[in-house]
Amino acid sequence: MKWRRNEEAPAVEESAVPDTGWATTSLSTGAMANWTAVVRWSAWGLLLAGPLLGGWALASSTHPVPVPTRAERPRAQPASSDAVAPAGFAELYVAAYVKAGASDAAAEELAAFYPAARSMTWPTQDGVERAESASAVQVRQISAGYWSVTVAAQITGSSKDGEGRIRYFQVPVRATSTSKGAASGWVAAALPGEVAAPTGGKGAAPELSYGSAHAPLASDPAVQTINGFLAAYLTGRGEMDRYLSPGTTLHAVRPAPYTSVTITQIADHGPGPAEGAEAQTPPDGVQRRLLVDVEGEGRHTSSRPMTYAVKLRARGGRWEVAALEAAPALATSDSSSHSPEGQDS
């Protein structure tokens, strides 16, 4: 009995498509054709419906798009927190008020500040009084757009016993507006009233953040720099730029008000140089802040005392002026180390 060898069946190639875990469905040729037709007609429908939908959206819009217009030129408006404008108005008003009885033209000038003055009768004055100077010394805001301003005026042309004396007037000032609500200017609410001089609190002089003042040392390079700088700055003698630190811009006083300037004493901000070290050459970049008292001599002025807060910076073995500070440094935690910069760059 012969045994027949079983021939192995040929292997069936597996599909090259990897098993993704998703169920797959094979479509017949007819189904595929129908699906292609549906997609084609849907695309044509959306293409044709686009313009119709856009027109419908524009027609149904209830909020038109705002078109930007050219901004109107801003009008000058009074600042409610700024007392400069009402103070200036009050100064001019008092000057016009003092001379209102001099002539019809003077009375009409007053009416520009206080319209009710046109219906008033002003008695003729024996001597024409004038306000040689008028300055607001106190401003109080009563309410929004309404101020009370006290003006100090030096009146001339009055009686001999009061010639040139300072007199005080209280002025009510109101902000005006147009029919559209835009601010337009100022007007006096009433005539000025003469009042006593304001009595503000008289406190002690503020303490400054400088050491003890002492006479300047001729051997101190800082004093030499300040001497030369002030001579050029106040008397016009010498070139001022040679004393300025690079980047600092200062302009001499013109016309020169003095013929000579003398330093009377100086004081260092903070510890300052050690005693006996003033004449030493300072390292580059070191700064020194000084409070300098001077006296100016002029053709019509004798020994006028003045004080400057000066910041110096060392460069090339000498001191140069880096700034004339706006104010001396106060002895407080906020301003002892930082002082407002004055004339510099």
Description of the structure:
With 345 residues, this protein is of the alpha+beta class. Among the domains are: 84-195, Nuclear Transport Factor 2, Chain: A; 221-324, Nuclear Transport Factor 2, Chain: A (Roll). The protein is 20% helix and 25% strand. Strands 1, 2, 3, 4 and 5 form a five-stranded antiparallel β-sheet that branches. Strands 6-7-8-9 form a four-stranded antiparallel β-sheet, covered by helices on one side. The longest helix has 31 residues, at 29-59. The chain starts with 28 loop residues before the first helix and ends in a 21-residue tail after the last strand. 21% of the residues are buried. Residues 1-18, 20-25 and 61-81 have low confidence and may be disordered. This is Conjugal transfer protein. It comes from Streptomyces natalensis ATCC 27448.
- For the record, give the distance between the C-alpha atoms at the N and C termini, rounded to a whole number: 123 Å
Q: What gyration radius follows from the Cα positions, in whole Å?
A: 43 Å
Ranges where pLDDT stays below 50 over 5 or more residues in a row are: 1-18, 20-25, 61-81
- CATH uppermost class of the domain at 84-195: Alpha Beta
Oligomer: single chain
What's the architecture of the domain at 84-195, going by CATH?
Roll
In one word, what is the shape?
A: flat
Number of helices: 4
Report the structural category. Answer: alpha+beta
In terms of DSSP E residues, the strand content is 15-25%
Secondary structure: number of strands: 9
CATH topology of the domain at 84-195, which one? Nuclear Transport Factor 2, Chain: A
Helix content: 10-25%
Organism: Streptomyces natalensis ATCC 27448
Pfam families: TpcC
InterPro entries: TcpC
Protein name: Conjugal transfer protein
